[in-house]
Structure prediction request, 113 residues.
Amino acid sequence: MRKTSQVQPEFSCPDCIGVLRIETIEGHHRGYVCQVGHRFSPNSLLQAKEREFERAVWSAAVLLLHVLSANQAIVNEPRTPRSVSLALKRRAREATQQYRTLLRMVENTHAIS
Prediction:
């Protein structure tokens, strides 16, 4: 007989972002279940959260590349004022550094397999 406790962890389902609850069977913690039925063992939840983290970091990295492309396009416009061009070049340097930092975050993550 499965019984889901009312204790709510402070994190969401990595598949649907729904509410996770600790799943207990005969009083023993067996894993996690979300409000729509996704079930995770403690280990599979950790792995899923690591994948979720990696997707988020890669999404941010790609967005920074888009920021760089947009900055370059505007800097290369002949009518872009010098002050705007300088500000965009400064932002491009920041975005490049932020992109490199995100890459290091992914490369230096030691997830449990």
